[in-house]
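>> Question from a student workshop board

For tomorrow's exercise we were told to take the sequence and the ligand below, predict the bound structure, and bring the output to class. My setup keeps failing. Could a helper post the expected result so I can at least see what it should look like? The ligand is iron/sulfur cluster.
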Amino acid sequence: MFKVENHTETLTDTKDFMDVEYPVMEHFYTIQGEGAHTGRASYFIRTAGCDVNCWWCDVKDSWEEEGHPRLTVKELVYAAENSGAPFAVITGGEPLLHDLLPLTLGLKSAGLQVHIETSGSSPLSGQLDWITLSPKRFKKPTAEVFDYVDELKVVVLTKKDLKWAEDNAAKCPEGTKLLLQPEWETPKSIDIIVEYVKKHPEWGISLQAHKFLKVP
Ligand code: SF4
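>> Workshop helper replied:
Here is what the output should look like for this input. Compare the format with yours to find the bug.
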């Protein structure tokens, strides 16, 4: 969990944050397909903008902010609240390119828990109940994010990524859920992960279940 403290000094009233806008590629009610909360109903908010540039990225349309609508916190909170989802997942793109305080305060004021999926490469912001860190070597995580990680999810393409996974796990708090996830277009990564997890049972496997379920 991460919380910006003393937010009331800057945002004293609901109206202070409900009109703030974010570039949003898409937002929708779905089933969380990855990580510890797999299978749970959740409201996804995919912000636009990413400066990490993973060559294997499957959401390259999210990299540029331009061309995506700007939606207010009010609009996003209304949609999430009315979906009936118990929690929202803010993802990207790289959501931490934006100050998430207004959006997360809005979601929490509507009674939703707030999860984030991030590369951790920009400063933390907002009120976050669950932080999934998916570190990318193309733009490494900040030192700060490791204190707050709930779940470490490392995408694996080759054996080299296992060392990257261990290097990041060493910086996470005790009790962090450790997950290796095969890259969808790299089937050989499954064998690498299965063998590794059998030898290192502190790690588990995260699959992109939403792709099997054919939900967005
Ligand atoms: S951090 Fe995520 S959105 Fe950004 S390039 Fe990498 S996989 Fe794509």
